[in-house]
Amino acid sequence: xxxxxxxxIEIVVILVILLAALYxxxxxxxxxxxxxxxxxxxxxxxxxxxxELLSKMESGDKITDNAKTTYLGEIISLSEQYPxxxxxxxxDTNSFMQVEVPxxxxxxxxxxxxxxxxxxxxxxxxxxxxxxxxxxxxxxxxMVNSIITNIELSK
Length: 155
Hints:
Layout: H1 2-26, H2 30-33, E1 36-49, H3 51-56, E2 62-65, E3 70-78, E4 82-90, E5 95-117, E6 122-124, E7 127-128, E8 134-138, E9 143-153
Antiparallel strand pairs: 1-5, 1-9, 2-3, 2-8, 3-5, 4-5, 5-6, 6-7, 8-9
């Protein structure tokens, strides 16, 4: 009789665990698994560029993520160039200051792309887009390292 009660309790425990696991699997956050295609505007800051390279960039250029070879879209706007700055230590005051680097520039590049958008991520092919990520952008005419500074979802 003790064995029947013991096995009965074990079966009930196993059934409870299986039912809890099944409930957990069916209640997975659907926003993580369900995506929707949406137009996204991504702003990249291309840093430490030479003037010659800046002259090659144009609106309408098609660009790709060089690391994952994912087509990212078409450049819809370019900012004016602005000086590239670097942090250097001032040993007299024992502090850091920003100094302009001669003949080096930054430029903001805005790209329109169709992306898979969820509550927690924006994906274009295999490339995940998050503010602060570094992505090497490539085109037939140039390659620049850039940092994502803004992601705007279109309505």
